[in-house]
Amino acid sequence: IQATFIPLLGEKRDINGGVIVLTDITELRKLETVRNDFVANVSHELRTPLTSILGYLDTLIESDIEDQQTREKFLSIIKEETNRLSLLITDLLNLSKIESQSFELSPGDFVKTLQKVYNLLEKNAQLKDIEVNMEVEENPPQVYMVKEQIEQVLINLIDNAIKYSPAGEEINIRVEKKADKLYFSIADNGIGIPQEDQARIFERFYRVDKARSRSLGGTGIGLSIVRNIIKQHGSEIKVESEEGKGSIFTFYLNIVKE
Ligand code: ADP
Question: Where is the Histidine kinase domain (predicted)?
Fold first, then answer.
């Protein structure tokens, strides 16, 4: 609680009363902490690849590395880390755009969007010999959505399901109409998420296993983008998962009434 005293002056400019304003600044403090944490996290995430890039560049510049193979190895690490920085910045800009703007939902064809995204990611699945089964509502109704954002959500969820599944596993996607909502779910038989991490995976930069996510090209931002977008659609993203068995992510969109 923050207290502010505002004196009330009498005719002779003497203080003859006052008002005390009490403000509950708990929420404000919380917001401040979240913002400080975010800045600290971003700085850390950006510094890690930068430190590595600078280190390798210094070595290349300062020491005479004759061996061509070593030089090439260093250069390819520098390229990899630069790509990572670029991906991180793209993700951050996306997230900040979604958080700061409000969007107009309009009627759209969810299944068509899903098909488009699937075509985009099919190769990734094939590379790991993963079969993606789709069980989709016949004559699906239109839903309220922002097409580009729903594309982003589907990319992130399908990409994760592929990333965190071992080769040869199956992924099951389902689109189902229930009352005035269209439900989407994606189930994988991958590594799963420990119970204690399930509530936190939608936070920015939260990763169950940093090293694993990093080696798979993850930034820890994908699911926070998903949560934000789905919230702006008046819905909620949910996860059910068992470690070592797999995960199911679900959300719904509101159907446009005829
Ligand atoms: P990342 O870029 O690390 O994949 P996300 O925000 O997309 O970041 O996901 C956050 C974390 O949630 C991941 O690092 C991973 O630990 C976990 N996760 C997300 N999707 C799955 C999944 N389908 N199976 C297992 N773990 C997952």
Answer: 41-257
